[in-house]
Each structure stands twice: as C-alpha cells, then as structure tokens.
Write a structure and sequence with these properties.
Blueprint: H1 32-52, H2 56-62, H3 69-94, H4 97-115, H5 120-148, H6 154-163, H7 166-182, H8 185-209, H9 224-242, H10 248-264, H11 280-307, H12 313-336, H13 343-363, H14 371-375, H15 377-400, H16 405-436, H17 441-451, H18 453-462, H19 469-475
Helix pairs in contact: 1-6, 1-7, 1-8, 2-11, 3-4, 3-5, 3-9, 3-16, 4-5, 4-8, 7-8, 7-12, 9-10, 11-13, 11-15, 11-16, 11-18, 12-15, 13-15, 13-17, 13-18, 15-16, 16-17
Length: 476
C-alpha cells in the first residue's frame, strides 16, 4: 500500500531559498489556490492508491492472469523508484511545475489504460505507468511545497498533505470493494480516472498562473543516479517477470534482473547495508526487509482469499481499511505510550508482531481453518509496521547526522522499494516452484508465506545493530 511520506523523512530546504512571507495561513489569499489544489491532489492520489490495490486480485482473476499478479504488484514499485528520481531531477532542472503537471496527467491516462485492460499484460503496463506517475507526483509535490510557501508554512503544508490521506484510507478500500462486487472492477479504475481529471486540470492552471519565487541553482546535466536507478528498475521488472514462471526463458530473465540488482543496487544504498553494519546501514536494511514482508502479505493475502477462499471484495476492502487504521494506531502508541523506549527495542517488538502476522497468514492456508484467520494477518502486520516504520525513520535521522538527513531519507526510500521487490520476488518464486511440483494451491500459498519467516525474523535478530551510538557506549 502506497503511503504519504512522513514529514520527518523530508530534508528541510535551505533557508536561503526563501519565499516572500505575508504572514497569512495556508488558505490565505496568496496560498489558497495552491493549498486547495495540492490537498485535492493528495486526496485523490491516496484514494487511487488505496482503492486500486484491493481491486487488483479481482482484476487479475477476471483477466485469467493470476500467475502474473506478482508482476502487476511489483512493477508499480519498480516504476515508482525510477519515477521518484526522474521527478526529482526534472524538478531540479526546471522547477516542480512541469513534472507535477505531467505526473497528474499521466495518472489519469494510466487509470484509463488499466480500466480498459483486455489482458493481464495491459493491466501490468497500466500499473507500471501509474507507478512512474506516482513517483513523480510524490517528489514534485514536496518540491512544490518548498517553492510555493515560506519556511514557516512548509511543516503545516506537509501535515495537510498527510491529512489528505485519512479519509481515503478509511473509505477507499471498502468503497472500491462495493463497486467491484456490485458493478465491475473496471468501474473502480474509470471512476478514479474521472475523479482525478478535475484536480489534474486545476493543477495545470494553478501551476501556469503561479509565479513562485525560486532562485535555487538548477542542474544542467543528468545525474548518474538517474541512469543507475533506471537500470535497477529494469532489473526489478525483469526479476518480477522471471520468477512468475518455471521455464528456461523465465530463468534467464530472472538471472538478468538479479545481476542488475546485485551490481547496481548497492550504489544507491549506504556502504555496509548488505552486511548490516551497525548504525545507518543496518537501519536502512531493516527498512527494506520489514517493508518487503508487509508488502508481500498485502499482495498475497487478498489474492489467496479472493481466488482460493472466494471471499467477497467488500470484505477485502474492509481488511485494507482495518490495516490502515491499526497502522496509525501502532504509530500513535509507539510515539506516545512507548516514547521512553529505545527506538531499537521498538524495532524488535514490531518485528516480532510482524513475524506473528506471517504465522497467522500461514495458518490461514491450512485445511479447515476459517478464511478470516488469514485475513487477520494484514491488520496484525500493520500493527508491527506502525511501530517499526517511525522508529526506523528516527534512527536513520540520528545516524545520518546534520547535513546528511536528505541522503539518509533517500536511502531509506530506496531500500523500502528494493525490499518490496526482493521479498515479493522470493515469495513468488517459492509459490511457483511449489505449484510446478504439483502442490495444491493453498499449500503453495503456505510455502510462500513460510518463505517470509526469514526476512520477518531478521529485523528481530538484527534490531540491536540500529542502536544509537550513545546506547552502544553505555552497554559497552
């Protein structure tokens, strides 16, 4: 599930790039149009993200493409990783207006592409382009906030953007489930395209009329990271397709994707990440592992429930909503009641809860066990992520030190994307191998969930390596 960036993960803009401040609020006359348009954009972006995901298993089944469902889920992440870097580079070159407008228009077009799908490949293409658009929009909105508002209003604007996801997280999944169940899964995509069209046009008008003061130096050459990220995204897409089948062609493509990831992904992460070196590298690694386990549960649990247990789409929507609510509750608990706990202990506790969620998902594949037992895995995993994600974010900022928090935030986001791709690929490979050897469908899902136990337990084992330096010295 795509989520808004936490304002604590954003590096502050340098104060010298100041916007003239008239003392007004977010909805005072100079900023009202931008605030309303940005809020509508984030609201509908959140609605699209949270309504589409629980609808995808139904769409894949209708298109006879369940075997390629992991590709549909994974290509969004792979494209989003490149879209974020592309949007950031484009914004550095020409400001946020063009990539933001382009991303919004592309969002509408990709929803139409997905809605009109006649094959699973067209649906995958729509999701790939949607991921590209989502990455561009997310980065561009953050940049546009820096260009449109004075420094004192930027934190309020970021909080407003996050608040724009509250209603979509509660209403989006169940509403999408009702529409898919009583009408058609295509109606969900077409409806979202129609709803997104108006703010997209408004965004273009606002961006054309708004004379933002932004005299920061512009980049004139492409960043090496742009090409590296493109290659990593291609490798991720090849890997996701490769593990979706069990023959020579799939094996070759999976190997090619793995080579690209192994060769180039380390260039996007802090040195020592793969060996879980203490401090920032371990923190970045655990962000990837924990996000990968949650994302895979989020993809496979609904797919199993819809295709094998024949659970209604409305129920799946309610499961997604409950997961969003308890994620927020977990974040609130760790930030309020457990504020005195060392952050690395919260990581370990959250990892333990998430591992228990994997065990619940595994139990949901056993004969005679009610289907809703498996459904409980998603909200339980969300509790664990609600505790781990903020704790890991705080630790990453502590370990990065002043002046390098932007790099640390970028590494955390990249690790999250790579973790989602890698863990989903692992589970998909296990699922397909199990099916190739003639295992029943539910047993194959059980094997895939069993494969999540290792990346689920690792954050519990390695959590101590994320400790603050002062805590390490005290123990020593």
């Amino acid at each position: 599930m795509t989520r808004p960036t936490d304002s604590s993960e954003l590096s502050p803009l340098p104060p010298e790039f100041a916007v003239a401040d008239d003392g007004g609020g977010l909805f005072s006359r100079p900023y009202a149009a931008a605030s309303a348009t940005f809020l509508a954009t984030m609201f509908l972006t959140g609605f699209a993200a949270l309504a589409v995901v629980p609808t995808l298993p139904t769409a894949a089944e209708a298109l006879d493409g369940v075997a390629l469902f992991p590709l549909v889920a994974g290509c969004f992440v792979a494209a989003g990783m490149f879209g974020g870097v592309l949007g950031g580079h484009w914004a550095d070159v020409s400001g946020a207006r063009r990539p933001l407008a382009a991303g919004m228009v592309l969002t509408v077009l990709t929803l139409v592409v997905a809605a009109s799908s006649t094959s699973i490949w067209q649906l995958a293409a729509g999701r790939f382009l949607e991921g590209l658009a989502a990455g561009m929009v997310a980065v561009s909105v953050n940049t546009a906030i820096g260009e449109a508002y004075p420094e004192r209003l930027r934190p309020r604007a970021l909080a407003l953007m996050s608040a724009g996801w509250i209603v979509p997280s509660l209403a989006g999944p169940p509403l999408a489930g009702v529409v898919a169940e009583t009408w058609s899964w295509r109606a969900v995509f077409y409806g979202l395209a129609a709803l997104t069209l108006v703010p997209s046009l408004a965004m273009i008008v606002v961006l054309r009329r708004r004379a933002w003061s932004d005299d920061r130096p512009r980049e004139t050459t492409a960043r090496p990271a742009l090409l590296v990220t493109l290659a990593v995204s291609v490798g991720a897409a090849l890997g996701q397709y490769g593990v979706s089948g069990w023959n020579v062609r799939h094996a070759v493509l999976a190997g090619a994707g793995a080579v690209l990831l192994v060769a180039l992904a380390p260039r996007l992460l802090p040195e020592g990440t793969w060996r879980s070196a203490s401090g920032l590298p371990a923190t970045v690694l655990l962000r990837g592992l924990s996000s990968g386990v949650f994302f895979t549960l989020e993809a496979f649990v609904p797919l199993m429930l819809i295709t094998e247990r024949k659970v209604d789409a409305v129920v799946i929507g309610l499961v997604f909503t409950s997961a969003a609510v308890v994620w927020a509750a977990g974040s609130w608990v760790q930030g309020r009641w457990l504020d005195g706990w060392p952050r690395h202990r919260l990581v370990c506790v959250g990892a333990g809860v998430q591992t228990a969620a994997v065990a619940v998902a595994l139990a949901g594949t056993l004969p005679g066990v009610p289907a809703l037992v498996g459904a409980a895995a998603m909200p339980l995993a969300a509790v664990g992520m609600g505790m781990m994600a903020p704790a890991l974010t705080v630790l990453s900022l502590v370990h990065s030190g002043p002046g390098r928090q932007g790099q640390a935030s970028g590494a955390m986001q990249t690790s999250q994307n790579l973790g989602q791709i890698a863990v989903l690929g692992l589970a998909t490979a296990v699922l397909n191998v199990s099916q190739a050897f003639g295992a029943p469908q539910l047993a194959s899902y059980g094997a895939a969930f069993g494969a999540l136990l290792a990346p689920g337990v690792l954050p519990l084992v390695l959590g101590r390596r994320t400790r603050r330096r002062s805590e390490v010295l005290e123990v020593g």
